[in-house]
Amino acid sequence: MAEQAKQAAPLVGVVMGSSSDWEVMQNAVAMLKEFGVPYEAQVISAHRMPDQMFAYAESARSRGLRAIIAGAGGAAHLPGMLAAKTIVPVLGVPVPSKYLRGEDSLLSIVQMPKGIPVATFAIGEAGAANAALTAIAILAATDDALAARLQEFRAKQTQVAQAMSLPA
Ligand code: RP5
């Protein structure tokens, strides 16, 4: 299912500023694979590949992307600059940074001025996975089968929590 998901026309784009972001961003890809959502994943650096970044954003909607998950660390411009050039929803993932542990990434991504939104998630792995789940929820609005899988995913988490016990 995973390979099929990747081979079909992508509905979700996963981009990141560096291959060093992959350790975190692979959590988004893993979730998209689990749900069988067609995706594409690649490195696009805002400050090292600005022309490619704009081309990606400008072509995203016409290529059929319904959401873009963008992860970056440090002065994390990638999600905001993508959002500046497309109306496809941009889901920003702050990647942990070397010196400020990703608080710089979080603030860079979350503090978008009014008018150009970036939906911003938690720093790190949880943020990457939840960004994918949000992209899945966006797609599920018009895909009943995907919606059913998302409900099932939620129900499993409820079962796990209900089965939890504490030490005596
Ligand atoms: C950002 O700078 C990337 O998103 C990455 O989180 C950070 C460090 O990049 P590398 O120096 O590891 O390529 O652009």
From TrEMBL:
Role, per record: Catalyzes the conversion of N5-carboxyaminoimidazole ribonucleotide (N5-CAIR) to 4-carboxy-5-aminoimidazole ribonucleotide (CAIR).
Highest taxon of the lineage: Bacteria
Binding annotation for substrate: S18, D21, R48
Family annotation (HAMAP family): PurE_classI
Pfam families (UniProt xref): AIRC
Annotated GO MF terms: 5-(carboxyamino)imidazole ribonucleotide mutase activity; lyase activity
EC number annotated for this UniProt entry: 5.4.99.18
Keywords of this entry: Isomerase, Lyase, Purine biosynthesis
Lineage per the UniProt record: Bacteria, Pseudomonadati, Pseudomonadota, Betaproteobacteria, Burkholderiales
Protein name per its UniProtKB record: N5-carboxyaminoimidazole ribonucleotide mutase
Gene Ontology BP term (one): 'de novo' IMP biosynthetic process
Enzymatic reactions: 5-carboxyamino-1-(5-phospho-D-ribosyl)imidazole + H(+) = 5-amino-1-(5-phospho-D-ribosyl)imidazole-4-carboxylate
Record bears the keyword Isomerase: yes
PurE domain sequence ranges: 10-161
Family: Belongs to the AIR carboxylase family. Class I subfamily.
Enzyme class label: isomerase
InterPro entries linked: PurE_ClassI, PurE_dom, PurE_prokaryotes
Keyword Transferase: no
Organism: Noviherbaspirillum sedimenti
Pathway note: Purine metabolism; IMP biosynthesis via de novo pathway; 5-amino-1-(5-phospho-D-ribosyl)imidazole-4-carboxylate from 5-amino-1-(5-phospho-D-ribosyl)imidazole (N5-CAIR route): step 2/2
